[in-house]
Design brief:
single chain; mainly alpha; 0% strand; globular
Length: 83
């Protein structure tokens, strides 16, 4: 991956994480650490931070969606099964 491509991806990840609420930071960081611990051995070291930031941003976005009631139909069906 070229430096220009890495910078583009970093900019994208930064944009994804821009709206992370403070209350989501720690859970998102913890989830990203768990996810990334499984993949760090298979990716270049210089991408570790980027991958972890992307995972945290995605997890935080999912938490925000759940808080705001933006659930897709599959999630609704699964949650109904648990009730």
């Amino acid at each position: 991956m070229s430096d220009a491509q890495k910078n583009e991806v970093r900019d994208l990840v930064s944009a994804l994480g821009a709206d992370i609420h403070d209350r989501h930071c720690q859970p998102a960081y913890n989830a990203a650490a768990n996810i990334c611990s499984e993949v760090f051995d298979s990716i270049p070291v210089d991408l570790h931070d980027l991958v972890q930031e992307a995972a945290a941003a995605g997890y935080a976005a999912a938490l925000s969606d759940l808080e705001n009631g933006r659930l897709d139909e599959q999630v609704r069906e699964r949650s109904e099964l648990l009730d």
